[in-house]
Recover the amino acids of this structure.
């Protein structure tokens, strides 16, 4: 399925691919948003500043970032951040990655998020993703590698598990 939900974007915001000159800013952004320059998911350490990605930018101001990793006909969204919420940036960034995944002949677009992140769960489920697995204790294991992951997350929910979501890409 090649989904192309129309994205509502502020007229001055553009989506563009990450380039080498963006790497240092991305590192700082990830550190500010996720507590460290690395992201630990499904027992894997990623450095988003070294991955492919797209930026939502308003002039020099970054207002959104998505990073991703393609392997074995699957495209994983490693990080997604909309600094200006509810303006269509998250949707536009996911669709930009989806286009790349489709062009690369990936069979699925997928990601994991933490069990407290009900906003992200809602966001992805509304955009054609399905919940395909719950990885019990995966966040507890990630915390051993990245101690800055809090014990308690959004809405006061204890963080223990990872939710795996995917959208199939059909040709
Ligand atoms: C989850 C996240 C990426 C969503 O990004 P976002 O830019 O707010 O998402 P969008 O604006 O595209 O869509 C969110 C909602 O706002 C609505 N919206 C978009 N533009 C709007 C506008 N101008 N006015 C009112 N609502 C609007 C969308 O329709 C959507 O609603 P829906 O889900 O009911 O369809 C963002 O909340 C975020 O960065 N969260 C923190 C990090 C995180 O959890 N990342 C995901 C895990 S990796």
């Amino acid at each position: 399925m090649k989904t192309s939900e129309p994205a509502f974007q502020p007229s001055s915001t553009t989506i563009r691919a990450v380039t080498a000159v963006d790497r240092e800013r991305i590192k700082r952004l990830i550190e500010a948003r996720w507590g460290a320059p690395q992201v630990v998911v499904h027992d894997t350490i990623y450095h988003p500043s070294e991955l492919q990605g797209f930026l939502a930018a308003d002039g020099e101001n970054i207002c959104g970032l998505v990073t991703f990793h393609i392997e074995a006909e699957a495209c994983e969204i490693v990080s997604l951040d909309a600094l200006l919420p509810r303006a269509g940036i998250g949707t536009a960034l996911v669709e930009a990655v989806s286009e790349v995944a489709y062009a690369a002949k990936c069979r699925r677009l997928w990601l994991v998020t933490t069990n407290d992140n009900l906003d992200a769960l809602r966001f992805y489920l509304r955009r054609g993703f399905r919940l395909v697995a719950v990885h019990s204790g995966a966040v507890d294991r990630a915390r051993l590698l990245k101690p800055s992951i809090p014990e308690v997350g959004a809405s006061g929910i204890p963080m223990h598990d990872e939710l795996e979501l995917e959208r199939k890409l059909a040709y």
Residues 14-168 form a domain with the Aminopeptidase fold (CATH 3.40.630.30). The chain has one domain: 14-168. The radius of gyration is 15 Å.
